[in-house]
Amino acid sequence: MEAFSFGSYYAGRSFIHRLDPRTKLLAGFGFLFIALASHTFPALAVLAIGIGISYALARIPVHYAVRSVAPLMVLVAFVAILTLFTEQSGRILFHLGFIQISEGSIYSCCFIACRMFLMMCGMSLVTMTTTTLDLTQAVEKLLMPLARVGFPAHEIGMILGIALRFMPQFATELSQTYQAQVSRGAKVASGPIGSLKFLSSISIPLFASVFRHAETLASAMDARCYHGEAGRTRLHPLRFCAYDVAAGIFMLALILCAAAIIILL
Amino acid sequence: MISCKDISFSYDGKVPTLSNITLDIADGEFLCILGGNGSGKSTLAKHLNALLVPDSGSVEVDGLNTSDPQLVYDVRSRVGMVFQNPDDQLVATLVENDIAFGPENLGVPTNELSQRVADALASVGLMGFDQHETHALSGGQKQRVAIAGALAMHPEVLILDEASSMLDPRGRHGLLKVCQELNHAGMTIVMITHFMEEAALADRVVVLDRGRIALEGTPEEILTRADELHSLNLEEPFACQLALELKRRGLDIRPHVDEESVVTEIRAAMGRHIETSLCEEIAASDEAPQSSDAAPLIQFEHVYYSYEKSTRERARRRKKNAPAAQAAEWGNDPNAVWALRDISFDVHEGEMLGIAGHTGSGKSTIIQHMNGLVHPTQGRVLLQGVSMADKHVNETAKTTVGMVFQYPEHQLFANTVFEDVAFGPQNLGLSANEVTERVLEALRLVGLDADEVAQKSPFELSGGQQRRCAFAGVLAMRPRVLVLDEPVAGLDPAARTEFLQLIDDLHARGLTIVMVSHSMEDIATHCDRVLIMNKGSIVSLGTPREVFASDRDLKSIGLGLPAPQHMACLLRDAGIPLPRRRLYSTKTLVESIVALAAGGVA
Q1: How far is residue A32 CA from its own chain's centroid?
Q2: Is B186 exposed, middle or buried, given 0-12, 13-18 or 19+ CB atoms closer than 10 A?
Q3: Is B434 an interface residue toward A (CB < 8 Å)?
Q4: Which of B88, B104, B408 lies at the smallest CB-CB distance from A213?
Q5: Residues of chain B contacting A168 with CB distance shorter than 8 Å
Q6: Could you tell me the pTM of the whole model?
Q7: Alpha helix ranges (H) inside B254-362
Q8: Run of H or E residues at B47
Q9: How many beta-carbon pairs below 8 A join chains A and B?
Q10: CA-based nearest residue in chain A for residue B111
Q11: Percent of chain B with pLDDT over 90
């Protein structure tokens, strides 16, 4: 769990934290879109400034932000290095067998690395300032218009919420089963058949546990009168407020600036 | 309030789970439904809030018929229900969202919801927990959140379906207290349980047997009928058991369910002898001297363990905690730096060692050290004189020390019982013949008939058989030490006795046994030595007599005494001159009282 900390929630009460999760989710996607549309460094610079301001507003300490994005830097490096060898244009600087590096490939390598880094920062900010619970509710609400054409928006929200609730539970059970099977001499690496057996000795109890939990959970939800979305109220209904309008305007300005630069240059 | 008229129900249309049950539950009543596993008590509970509807007969709640699909939600909002497993009835990540779930479904307006959440939390004694994450709570807290979730729907009846059976004594006590308070405030409570001490507090007790009402009456009437209870896989509360035994020995005592009345009865029965008999303080010498020449199998030498591996991080946490060093009220403090501190003790060859302590006191961490699953942060653990830090020793530890974890049946996975039990020996790389021989031996040891079950799927077996099968899976490794974590958790009284017998048999065959348990009775009666843990440290270690005879240490950390010992203390407080510094079992306590009553010295 510790190893993968991308975008884990950073508790706070900043302006960004208090935004409606829908605003943040939409803004995040808007940001991704504009970052993908940017083809020049100046456009990326505008986006970088925008992200910088947002992190400052969210009052997230730099080392937290870095720690959050760091695990995915491997992915960024991988894609960047791949580009180095595939994108070719301009003068050839280095040549060895089928490997060649040109001016153009260095440029696009740097560019892609910067763009992906910014995109990660953007998404990480959304999840760092929003609880998973709010995120699921936002997803549910944003998908709601599709419910008219029979899309199970509420059910998906409910499923996400319950999955999140049971995640730590299953992590604990998994580690218990692992310990029990290791105590019976099971080894992770013991040839293909042995490994398969080891895997099933851990996954089958987990599936059994999922079904066992699901059965009681269903009864428990029935007992508490759950009958789908109809007539359901909310403890904390999502509401847009003045902050969201301000954030929307900020986002729009950022997009316009970036767009202007893309078009002008 | 609720009236069941002649209800019958069957899950498969053939075997009746409930037959012809007629039961009325009055407004404000505290009703307890008892029965062994498979007696139909949970099925009956599900009929009371329309989770199930009877095949014949009718159930009415407040005059609403549960069979009417139109009224289902009216019925369920009037009858709240709490289930057995604390882990699978909470739906949300945060406590407040979970409690709001019921009223949200009922369409309670938003501005009223937060008030309902706050009220419900207050009535289960969890004020200020609204922002806690549900998975981080202790079992007892989770069950109280589940009660709050039901209360937030403003029900008139609360049903608890074995809600305390998976909790430790402290959690169980808290749950019971909440139920009693709610009952005093006018709530009708229906409690399904196989803990007799809980049943003793009810207004009325109903005992089910194979889907029929076998006994019905006040706790005084029902719980004193020992023979009938035994035939129904139940046992009477200890106070009752003692009174009945004394009566059989000729003392004029009427059995009661509560301790105080029994103490009063005993005092009255022997009143004139109390003054005449001498109150002698005998240091009991009836115990065999400790055989210290037995070789230590496992040795703990100044073991410290922390979940935080880096020293820097530990120092940081310590600093953070230093100013606010208040102890967590329930369970362990998640920020505590050390899960174990300075643990030193030996496990001797051939002994049975009991480990007791609250949930989170470090018991489970200790046993994980015993076969090298985790390694001490500081200090060392030796197996037969060699440190387990050695990789080779760590390998042999898995075969020398067999581990049976809590609810071991949850680890069953193979297609057949045979394959599951064979998993361990196969991992050891044994020949097919050897594997078969070991599997058959292990199944025989746990009392399973190989011809009958070996080719069945482990998931087809009954709960008790599944646990035996999981035991066999560990025994097939032919360990010298068997480590058991709460081996009888979640079993009904009859099954519990059978399992403890099984463990005694294994011990008698020469197996060294380490048993973690919440039940002080089990530890006092079965173990040679007891280790008491509190907050990661050893509080006391010694024979049951040494540990339990001085009740002060245990009381200060909130652990109970074995029932006979507790009763002896109460009797002494009432002026009956029972010698101190002695460990009483039911038998010796009866002997002492009879002797005192006859005018002699205990």
Answers
A1: 12
A2: exposed
A3: no
A4: B88
A5: 135-136
A6: 0.82
A7: 259-269, 271-276, 311-321
A8: helix B41-48
A9: 157
A10: A235
A11: 42
